[in-house]
Amino acid sequence: MKLVAITREMIEGAKIVDLHETYELSDDGLDTRIIYFTTDSGFTFTVPFAGALWETCEVPEGAEQLQDEVVSYSFKVVRRFLRKPRFVEEPSTIIDTVKRIKGRKIAGVYCGAYDDELEFHYPPDGVIVFQDGSQASNNMVAPHGTGAAGLYLRESEAAPDLAGMVDYFTIPIDQQAEQGADDQLPARAESKAK
After folding, report:
1. Over the stretch 131-154, which tens digit does the pLDDT of each residue have?
2. Contact call for residues 160 and 113 (beta carbons, < 8 A)
3. Does residue 84 sit within a domain?
4. Per the domain annotation, does 73 fall within a domain?
């Protein structure tokens, strides 16, 4: 598959139809989760970074297709006087984040505003905004065991205000950053090698 630069015309109005994820635990104790969004137009993408060229990609071999619903089991410890503690199952929770994302139309993609002190956009990674006002993002790296790396969906009533954000397509591409982008995103380097 030939990689193509993603344009505003390609992304706005596109529906998410499938999601995949790759996971890696680094030697430094960091969880890395990259989400691959596939649209009804047939192209796949990851969230963009401010100032970097945003291209379509292929879902890597070995990526896990995310299920529409996942059951999360919960247990509590019950202690009784002079008895061993035991685990008691609590009601399970159905997590349907993927199901709620599928079929939503993309209205735009935003990144953090430019910070003069830091001399780059912060946060640099993109947020997908849907036509209903909800927002999806991918926290790619987090300390292992925290559960913080991965896919996030904020429904419109809980979504942060976009006032401090910048439309991705208005940010100039940083040619120097683009030359080093393959070193920063392993999945991107793999898809370019194919």
Report:
1. 999 999 998 888 898 877 889 998
2. no
3. no
4. no
